[in-house]
Amino acid sequence: MTSVLKELQWRLQDPRIDYQTIIVGVSLAVAAFEGYIGSRQKPYLLESEHPSLPASLEPYLPAETRQETYEKSQAYALAKHQYSTVIGKLELVQSFLLLSCILAPVFAWLFPGTGSPPSSVSAPWFGRGHHDWTLLRGAWDLAAKLPGAKGEISTSLVFVAILTVVGTLLSLPQSYYKNFVLEEEHGFNKMTRSTFFSDAAKGFVLSLVLELPLLAGIIWIIHWVGTDGVLRIVAWIMAFIFSIQIVMIPLYPYVIAPLFNKYTPLDETHAVFPKVKALATRLNFPLGRVWVMDGSKRSSHSNAYFFGLPYLTKHIVIYDTLLDKSTPEEVEAILAHELGHWAGKHVLVLLLTSLIQTGFSLLIFSLFLSNPVLLSSFGFTSTTPFSGSPGGPTIIALFLASALFSPLSAVLQFTTNTVTRALEYQADRFAFVLGPEYAKNLKGALVGIHEKNLAVYGVDPVYSAYNNNHPTLIERLDALDNALETGEKRTSTQAKKEL
Question: Which residues are in the Peptidase M48 domain (predicted)?
Fold first, then answer.
């Protein structure tokens, strides 16, 4: 295995490979693929194509408000679709600018001495003859000149911080529009502008606090193991990431989540409280506290979930919007579904799935560490400032390998969604097994949440498989109906046998 990987590493260093052109081409191909998937969904959102609610859903919505609800959900879904299409194109342009030399003169003017502008003008966008400078190389040179850059790891952290600052500034107008125009227009935004900017500042600081130590650890491991030990690199980084995940599971609800939302214990006099306690007792669920989260502070959307390490005490979180918009029986049914995830050990399944995907990705990325051909395609060499490996900075190799294999991420997205959708069906089935009344109340809750969230009713199957980690409303209702019908038939058959 090791010899095969080393042979592959060597072949990937063929100087005839033009990685810059390949990566830009791959980025365009992925964008085209996602654009195609988006185009499949758009007809489902147009009144001319789908003027009324799917017939299978008509029995679940009141006749007097059915069409109005459908039209509102279609308008909301179309607005979100158009927004995501524009954002996707903007992100593609940003990626293209980062990987090309088109901004060389501007960058050289703003930051003198940060890289050399292209010496040739035969291919003004990208391609051979332009590998001596890219915006990516300029950002690295800028990081190397800033205070705190004293070696490859520290320079890498400054470099990532620069990209994070730029990314945050670019995303702020997009996020502002989404919240204060799109969401507000459809009645969902409850966020004030002070909360918006406060969240943005907290998110920025938090991303640096969490990401920088993780990246520092990964780069240190790669240097410690050496770029020739591909399998050892993968094993050690996976162990490191797994340990971080184990720490983050209990840390998130107690340290991170309270930075953005307020959590208060559910009042024991609330009608939902005894139902939650009884359900937990029935299932031997290790219930700690039941918390209410002020989701209404930012949005009208609703949800519920539990958290806690496997085999230890768990805590349940219910959005205040869910308590306000659903009956106690519906909330109980939703929690029965959530506890189905616990009973099926779905958190562990998802954790293992994530580790397997991470290991596979790391195995591929490790083939490109210290690849001089890949790095030189974007202006990096062993003489690049603070380059700690023969081919160039490790963080750049990881970044470029990630871009090179973005199609793999698309495939993994299909795979991950397939797994999570299967787990959702299992959790729904668990609610049914607890009793037919749970399944019936869960159906009512799903329809109610869908209606109040103005979620889309018609979904293209390919679009759904790629973008949705939950089955559609129709799919979940059909599965619950089949379970109820099968259960009723079994009950009837059993009764006849007893007679």
Answer: 275-482
